[in-house]
Every structure is written in C-alpha cells, then in structure tokens.
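Translate sequence into structure tokens.
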Amino acid sequence: MTSPVLDAILAVTSHLDIREALRELVRTSIALTGADYAAIAIREPSGAVETFVDSEDNIEPVDLTGNEPRLDVPVRGHDVTYGTLTLVGGSTPLSAEGVDQLHLLAGAAATAAANSRLYDAARTRERWLAVGQEITTMLLAGTDVEESLALIASRMRQVAGADTAVIVLPGVGEDWVIEFADGDPVGDLIGIVMPPEGRAMRVLADGHGIIVESFARARPLRVPEFGRYGPSLYAPLVAGERRLGVFILLRNKQAPEFTENELTIAESIARQAALALTLAESRQAADLASLLAERGRIARDLHDLAIQQLFATGLQLRAAAQTSSDRQTQEAFESALTGVDEAVAQIRSIVRTLRSDAQDAPLLERLRREESLARIGLGFAPTLSIEGPLADDGALAERLGEDLADDVVAVVREGFANAARHAGATAVHARVHLGTRQLTVQVTDDGTGVDPRRTRRSGLANLAARAQAHGGTCELVAGEVGSVLTWTARRW
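Result follows.
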C-alpha cells in the first residue's frame, strides 16, 4: 500500500464531517490514477443521493453520460453498499494494484459513510430523547392535557425536521379526527375524519408505526389533503391495551424519507407520551373524584345540620306563635315559618343536585353539574344563568325531549372547554334562555383569543350538526378580547 492511500484512509478516522473525509478520498483517487475527474456519491437506502462530493466542488451529481474512459467502484463495507466512487478520463491504464488501491479507497469511503450515519443516528436519538423527557416531565407536572398535546405536536415536528405534525384523537361516536396540527399551513387539516380503512386506523389497530415513502406516490390516497406532502411517519399513542391516538409526521415532497431509526425513536416517545397522558387523565379523574366527594360532604352537612337546625327553629317559632295572643305577633311568626319552609325546600333541591349523578337527572341539575365540573379545566368557577319563561317549568325535560336536553348539556360542556383553551381567561359565563319558541345557549369569556392549532373544530362541527337537527344555528365569534359561542334550537 502506498503512502498516499494509507494517509487518505487514516484521514477518514479524523473527520466527523463526512464531506471532508470524502474530499480527501477524491483527491487521493485522482492523484493515484491520474483521472481527470472523480466523484463519490453516497446514497440513502431509497436510492436518493445523500451526500455528493467531486473534484470540481459541484453540489449536485454531474451527468457523466458519454464520458470515457469511466470506472465505477462500489462503495461497500460489511455487506452494505453505500454508493459509488466514479473516475473519468486519464491516459494511463490502471494496473491490478491500482484497482486494488481504488477498492481500498472505496472501502474507506464506506467506513466514512457508516461512521457518519452512526454519528447522525446518535445525535438524532439524543435530540428525540430530550424532547421525550421534556414531554413526559410536562405532562407529569400537571400541565393542561390539551396544551400538552399542542406542545407535543410542535416539539416532535421540530426534532424530526418535519414540515407538519398532526395528532389524531377520538372524535364523536367511532370517528377518529385530526384534533391538533402544527406547521404551516395546517388550517385545512384540523377536523379531518380519518378513513376507517386508512393507514392511521391500521397503525392504531396494530399498535406499530409505519413509514410512507411519499404521499405523492402513495395509492390509495384516502386523505386528499395529504397529497401535498412527501414522506410521512405514523406512530401510535398506546399505553398498555389503551389506544389513545396516532401521531403523524409529514415532510414536503422533496424532503428525505424517514429512517427506521427515526421510526423506532418516535414509537418510543409516543409510548412515553401516551403513558404520561394516561397518568394525567388519572390525575384529572382523581381531582374530579375529590370534587364529587366534596359535593357529597356538603350535601350531607346541609341535610344533617342545616335542615335539622331549620326544623328546630321552625318548631320553636310555631311553639312561640301558639303562646302569643297578639294577632300581629302571630302573623309575624307565620311569615317567619313560611320563610323557614321555603329555605328547607331550597336546601333540599340543592342537596338533590349535589348528590345526583345519573344521566336522567333533571336538565337544570345536569347543567349545574357541568358548571361545577368545569372548574377543573378552567382553574376557576364559571357562572351559569338559566332564564326565560320556561326556566321554572317543572316538566321542562318532557317539553324539550331527551335529545334536545342532551344537546343543551353538550353545548354548555363544549363552551366551557372552548373557553379553557383561551389565554388569560378569568371569567366565563354560560347563559341558557328557555323561550317558548326558541332555546338559546350563549357562552362568553374574557380571554385573549385561542391558538387556532388548539381549536378542536370537530367539536364545533358537532355542535353545529346538533343545532341543525333542531332547526337552529351555531356560531363562535372570537375577538381580540374574549369570544362568544351562540347555539340555538327552534324545534320543540
């Protein structure tokens, strides 16, 4: 082995930058062979050029058609072909020893390519794992689940070098819907229902991720909006037997494909995120259980203490009234007794509301329940007013019907949830007006607006569909400060 060849091979080990290593090998191959031109092209497993270096400092591969004489030496090592070393021109035929030396140089290029890929894979894994740790820490620290999902989409897109990231979550009924999207533009992606036979549903069922080489060539293409993208990666959000959703990374058409290494890491981080989401949901369930337990305690105290005390007071007033002979004094006692009876009736109604948890509970009680439960997501207590000529109708549920009553509860719940996504909201009010010919639900807040990437359009579309079923309308108006959700129903 000549010294220049040995020097070039040794130089490969001193470069972490593959381009510098390949330039050294190109210079040595020309010096060794007397060729007019030399180039090394390292290709991805798909065949696309990953790294190209030549003796003329070209950035893109050069068309060498018709250039003779030409010699192509495979860049191969450990049974893996990484690319080709190409030499063109030169007046001196190569000896057998010269050919062997070229193969040694090509082998060194293979080593450089392998080392570069290992280094890139290690750095990629390090970046992904850092993001995974950030996501897990954020979820376990008690960050709002929806805020966490929006951040997951953003951070995963950035670390993967993707142009768009979306998260598919359960929608209405058995639908699975794109609820979160990050990138630009993504407005038309939010709210898309995933086709039952599509890739996302297959990934969800199998519990394993997949790589799509390019949506530009993918057939069938069941989500037309994905046609503007190229490579994609699907990773399921699974925690044990629970299927929480699917995470999808999308790159533009000319971008490099996702690697198996990226898929493996993405699946691992998606599992971590799914587990953290499950724990966050459990924490919210515990908060809800604590709230319900507190409601139960208040109900018991009202029933066992307040009502009994009022009963005792009423008995004392009645006894005092019977001993008095003055008519005005007796009327005052009777008025006080009437007030005590009304207070007892009101407390009993409150106790029933606090204790009730059945789906068939009276509508007004169910609305009060939503008002209480919304405290968890909002961080403060919203307010609820029920007004109109039918507000005190004892047969209200029968007049509305089960479907409309369920829809009213769903609108109030979604209105509170929408307000929870607004930055800086400190007050939320739900107003339910029960008119004789129209029912109106209006939810207002004083927040500073909502990030469109966090707006669950499927939820608003669901409310619009419910309104149309009752001959009504649904509209969300967002201003610089606050928003107003108005929902109406006209069919009784």
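Note: The chain is about 50% helix and 20% strand.
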